[in-house]
Here is the input.
Amino acid sequence: MQIIEVKNLYKSYKKIEAVKGISFSVNQGEIFGFLGPNGAGKTTTINVLCTLLKQSSGEAYLDNLEISRNQGEIRKRIGLVFQDTTLDDYLTAEENIKFHGYAYNMPKNLLAQRTENLLKMMDLWDRRKENVRSYSGGMKRRLEIARGLLHLPKVLFLDEPTLGLDPQTRRKIWDHINEIRLKDKITIFMTTHYMDEAENCNRIAIIDHGKIIALNSPEGLKIDLGGDTVEITTENVSEAEKEIKSLNLKPTITNNNISFQVPNGNEFLPNFVQNFQQKIISIELRRPTLDDVFISLTGKAIREQNQSSTDQMRSWRNRRGMGGSR
Here is the structure.
């Protein structure tokens, strides 16, 4: 069952096309990811789906509701964790959570129960009375995720949920996210430019320059690339290239190394080594990564760029538009 459906969505800022006619759907209960560099259109798409921006054209639905015409109902159904922290540093963790609950008019008994359950799940219960300004970056991120889940949303949007955190903290946060998703049966829609983080997704849409250029599971994207990569070094590169081409493979020469893709590399390699006529100096077999996929699709490695001041101001205005519901 689809919880989100997007059809030919466009969003422009004056002469800049941030999103260029994208279409996709998200299944209920899955982790769906947007993978791409800063400026690719990820955050703009999330802002449209969360009612913070109105699309220039196209259609977007969440829980069978057209988003631009049902903003109040949509906001009841979603949780949102922004790239930058929106916590009040001068309040305690418990106060930050409860303030959010008051904005959603949650009954006191339910608010108290959800606050305790979520803070315990995020390993923050023992420090609930401390001001947030004393928290580490990872603790603040866990608190923001707990806050976004407080009102039992159907979809939790995570915009670069572990940006700037160390790998160990990122893994810990994802342990919590997966635990909550399975427990509360919610849908996760996330953006990231971390390849290891994208591996948590059931499906990934790779987006660049406002367009979706591939959509599949992480494993499916790697398979689409052409299988495993074999890289060999030989004494006679030109003769080795001819022999590899005779096997209906497409070799690529880099310096004195020859690489090519094959399905099921572990099964291919023994017979290849036994029958290859040229002397092999070294050979390496490796599984494709999402980095390989992204480079193959875009011709470049993923870009990590800082937000421009214009983007930061736009982000601030958008959050103000959400008011207390954020």
User: Anything to note?
Assistant: The longest strand covers residues 2-13. The longest helix spans residues 167-184. The chain has twelve helices and 14 strands.
